[in-house]
Amino acid sequence: MKVWRLGLGICAVVCATGGAGLGWAEEPTVPAQGDAAIQRLFPQSWPISVRGWVDGGYTFNGSSPTSHFNGPYNAVDRDRPQLNQLYLVVEKTLRGTSGIDVGGRVDAMYGYDYFLTQSNGIERNQSGSSKWNHEQHGVALPQMYAEAGNQTFSVKAGHFYTIVGYEGVPAPANFFYSKSYSYQFAGPFTHWGGLATWNVTPQFMLQGGLVNGWDSFDRRSDKPAYVLKANYATSDKFLSASLAMITGEEPTAVAAKTEQRTRYSAIVSVHPTDDLEYVFHHHYAYQEDGKVGGGTARWYGIDQYLYYRLHQKVKAGLRFEWFRDEAGTRVGGSPDRGNPNLAPFAGSFYSLTGGVNYYAHSNITIRPEIRYDWFTGGRNPYNDGHNDNQVLVAVNAYLQF
Which residues neighbour 125 within 8 Å (Cβ) at sequence distance 6 or greater? Predict the structure, then answer.
């Protein structure tokens, strides 16, 4: 496809000129678990490493909705026991800081969270309708890429997680079991295209590249999108900051039409002590002709996270979120999963989540949490349209192998 040739060409030009680096963070950075090393089933010293995890949980909804759906969610969206992720990673990492090495990675997942990692043209049809996943649990290929270079500079091409945003799909990359609105509805989950990474200094990294838009390998109208990211961290890890963005043409509310869609994400993390961390995440996005009937659609908000290590095996966390969906074009349950809480919900969503991570074993993490959601707008998005708020209590655990 043209977009792939163009993407690899841009990567080649950037590599040759020493311009802005290209690449992404494989998985979002979150507070580390206990000090003990994870005991892997397969030796990680092999040239090609194999690892993974099993993740599952249960969410109790205080409103007891008839449909069993937890409002207009697309993740952890039912008050039923769930096998969220049976996840396998096969990877060859790049070695050294000079010279050229070749590597790559393939991720495969089965579980309820497949919905967050599907691509048009792979797990879905070009139109976005489901191709092979029609049940509550499904199969997806979240990442599949090749790379060349070294740990200082590398080029990657294929399928990978987005570089924009704070939270992610892999269970070990998130403190909380439930997902923020900003992750579920504000941006893309994955990309197909070409990227690279340039670690300019130990503290400063540049990333960027060219991809086939949001969550698409092949769609009705393939359009290139540009992704960029800069990250800086002080040598003592007290402060880190990043700014990432994606811009390109995406489908609008008008059938068979695409217009410019841009999203940026700014993250600042402060780590004043070994036990305490605060994270501030601001995001903003807009799409031309994104509203039904025409007009620019905008969605934006703020996430805040506070983590405190109570004990070597226990860490507490608090998350507060404000998500503004001005035109009601982003937040809504998926009819593919039978969720009746469908858009539009024009207004502001708020959530307050508290929980702990208990590292019962170097391989086992238990994540209980309690979450309160509320909405200010013209409709009731919870309890099948009866309430403007809800309380969720969840318990989750994942086992790494």
Answer: 131
